[in-house]
Amino acid sequence: MSDTILWLIGAFAVLGAEMLIGTVYLIAVSAALFCAALCGYLDFSLTVQCSVAAIVTCLGAMGTYFLRTKRKSAAEDVRLDEGNNVIVEKINKDGSAYVNYRGAKWLARAEKGDLKCGFYIIAKIDGNTLVLTEKN
């Protein structure tokens, strides 16, 4: 069996595993095996084929890593809670309050000044604390 056929069998096996597992990194490995199969088809030596497979795998994994981290940080930039309304009903001794938001009790504090009973807007979320501003 030729090198090309062996590389293609490996590429399709890895691609099938990718479909079952769902990691994006195996696509890079499968692409590298396809590139090695192309080198085998063009009658390059086995050393060149293995080198191409290794280089394309590394480049593909790094590219996938950077795309995933860029996409993850873009998703973190979407702050869906900011601008929503909450009602402060009771103030704690330390000036904070517990408010009901999205079906759970959240600790809340004022962005500026002290909290008073009333309606507020979520300015940001600091860990597990809602930072509130007064509703105009």
UniProtKB/TrEMBL annotation:
Keywords: Membrane, Transmembrane, Transmembrane helix
Transmembrane annotation, as ranges: 7-34, 46-67
Name under which the protein is recorded: Nodulation efficiency protein D
Organism in which the protein naturally occurs: Succinatimonas hippei (strain DSM 22608 / JCM 16073 / KCTC 15190 / YIT 12066)
